[in-house]
Design goal:
This is Odorant receptor. This protein has about 400 residues and is mainly α. It has twelve helices and two strands; from the N terminus they run αααααααααββααα.
């Protein structure tokens, strides 16, 4: 029996009614859990309680976590081993980036709701089985992407938790004035579970910041594919008049303009969040690699760092790939327009085709901070900085010096 909680992870039957907003189901569920999207139908007391929960998650994830890690370095610096220190530094730097991305994403949630409203009429254009299949597949894939990201992030935090407990220390050693994990097993478990809860809030915030671009860009790609299918069937029905064929072409042009408006709406948010991520990739991957190569002594901590590297790469690589595929979709749509049945059409139909073809030949491209094009090549370029960190540590013999000072 299929569980309703995970029913969106498979493409729905073509007989079922599916809308583009269904691709955001798990995204909005996570946002509701985090306190970012208030559920409808709440009473006054429930709204106050939900607002209190929103403030709690914001304070813990965006204020306490980076501040707690920084205070730990200031108060207990002499108690850190090299591997524990680097693990905490990785999380601390990532938290700073998460603060920027989460604040931008939370403040721009209205853009995502507006995109859902704007793109909803395009669902009504899906009349053929092939077009509906494209829409259904996109909805399932978008929800699967969110679950995949969640699995990677939870895998990192859970692995770190148990590896640290096995080693007899708190996983991230957050500054906690109420519970000192060094005072006994009970305190260790209390401090570790509290840290796991705080990190869980932070990774949910990061989940939303990292998945919304892929979800919405996948939505745009699906409607470009549907538009391509519609263009291939224009003027193929002999029962339609030239006036009706022209109106169908105009509808296609209007739908493409709707997709462009949606892209422009999400562009400022996407530019800011991915720019912050690009700035962090090389540093974080470099620190994690140095930790694995020079300081990690247990298999559990090595696995934790490997999963951390996978999580960092997951935050940017799928989005970069999606942006390149979006450009390829625009080129594919241009070919579909050119090869459509327009040769023997009337003059105004040909004029509209020429305008549409000219407009589509300008690909939809996104930039990170108006500096880097969001592409796989850009992602590789910023990731190469990790090798520079490893080279510096190796050539300056910093690892050996750090080991001697920590003894």
């Amino acid at each position: 029996m299929q569980k309703p909680l995970f029913e969106r992870l498979r493409a729905a039957p073509l007989t079922a009614r599916v809308a583009s907003v269904d691709a955001c189901v798990y995204f909005y569920r996570a946002a509701t859990f985090l306190g970012w999207v208030q559920p409808e139908g709440l009473g006054q007391v429930q709204r106050w309680a939900y607002s209190l929960w929103t403030c709690t998650t914001m304070l813990l994830g965006l204020l306490y976590l980076p501040l707690g890690l920084t205070l730990t370095f200031a108060v207990h610096f002499d108690m850190f081993g090299p591997s524990e220190f680097l693990s905490s530094v990785q999380v601390d730097i990532n938290c700073i980036g998460n603060v920027i991305k989460a604040c931008v994403t939370y403040s721009q949630m209205w853009r995502m709701r507006r995109i859902n409203e704007m793109i909803a009429p395009l669902d009504e254009r899906c009349v053929t089985l092939n077009q509906r299949q494209i829409l259904h597949t996109m909805v399932a894939r978008a929800n699967l992407i969110i679950m995949f990201f969640l699995s990677v992030y939870v895998g990192f935090t859970t692995t770190t938790l148990f590896a640290s407990l096995y080693a007899g220390q708190a996983p991230w050693q957050l500054y906690n004035p109420l519970v000192d994990w060094r005072q006994g097993t009970r305190q260790l478990w209390l401090a570790s579970l509290f840290e796991y809860f705080v990190i869980g809030i932070a990774i949910t915030q990061e989940l939303l910041s990292d998945t919304y671009p892929i979800v919405f860009l996948s939505m745009f790609r699906a409607h470009l594919a549907i538009l391509k299918d519609r263009m291939a069937h224009l003027r193929c029905n002999p029962e339609l008049s030239e006036r009706q064929n022209y109106q169908q072409l105009v509808d296609c042009i209007k739908d493409y303009r709707t997709i462009l408006h949606c892209c422009e709406l999400i562009r400022p948010t996407l530019s800011a969040t991915i720019f912050a991520q690009f700035m962090l990739i090389g540093i974080l991957v470099g620190l994690a690699a140095v930790n694995i190569l020079f300081f990690t002594t247990s298999l559990g901590m090595a696995m934790s760092n490997v999963i951390f590297i996978a999580a960092i790469c997951t935050e940017s690589f799928p989005l970069c790939m999606t942006c390149e595929l979006l450009i390829a979709d625009c080129e594919s749509l241009a070919f579909a327009i050119f090869h459509s049945h327009w040769v023997d059409a009337e003059g105004r139909y040909k004029s509209a085709i020429i305008y549409f073809l000219h407009r589509v030949q300008q690909p939809i491209q996104f930039w990170a901070g108006a500096i880097f094009p969001i592409s796989v090549q850009s992602n590789i370029t910023v990731a190469k900085f990790a090798f520079s960190i490893i080279t510096i540590v190796n050539q300056m013999n910093l690892a050996e010096r750090f080991r001697k000072e920590s003894i």
